[in-house]
Write a structure and sequence with these properties.
β4 (59-63), α4 (68-79) and β5 (85-88) form a beta-alpha-beta unit. The longest helix has 12 residues, at 68-79. The chain has a single domain (3-97), classed as Oxidized Rhodanese, domain 1, CATH 3.40.250. By secondary structure, the protein is α/β, with parallel strands linked by helices. The N and C termini lie far apart (33 Å). The chain contains five helices and five strands, in the order βαβαβαβαβα. A five-stranded parallel β-sheet has the order 1-5-4-2-3. It is 34% helix and 19% strand.
Length: 106
């Protein structure tokens, strides 16, 4: 079972300065419309190639557009031995619906 976090709780964690590893696994075209603050963009298909660089001592929050792809990415990382992964339930759609900050993709 994948641990999930909702947008409101995630925004509270970010605002309180919690040290999270935020991973946006959407496509280049999707992130062109903006992303969550302090996120790293990494398309989903690149996860197996880059996961050696992911911290195992931090909570990893993964998000996509709606929460479906990121759910599967969380399952994959859990199978690979990452204990602290969380899926953003509802993805960036829910984040935007709550009017939380979206920053330009740099």
């Amino acid at each position: 079972m994948v641990n999930e976090i909702d947008s409101v709780t995630l925004e509270e964690k970010i605002s309180s300065g919690e040290d999270l590893y935020m991973l946006d696994i959407r496509t280049e075209a999707e992130v062109a419309h903006g992303m969550l603050p302090n996120s790293r963009h990494l398309p989903m298909h690149m996860i197996p190639l880059e996961m050696a660089d992911f911290p195992k001592d931090k909570e990893i929050v993964i998000y996509c557009r709606s929460g479906a792809r990121s759910y599967h990415a969380c399952m994959y990382l859990m199978q690979q031995g990452f204990p602290n992964v969380m899926n953003l339930r509802g993805g960036i759609i829910d984040w935007a619906r709550n009017r939380f900050q979206i920053v330009p993709y740099a």
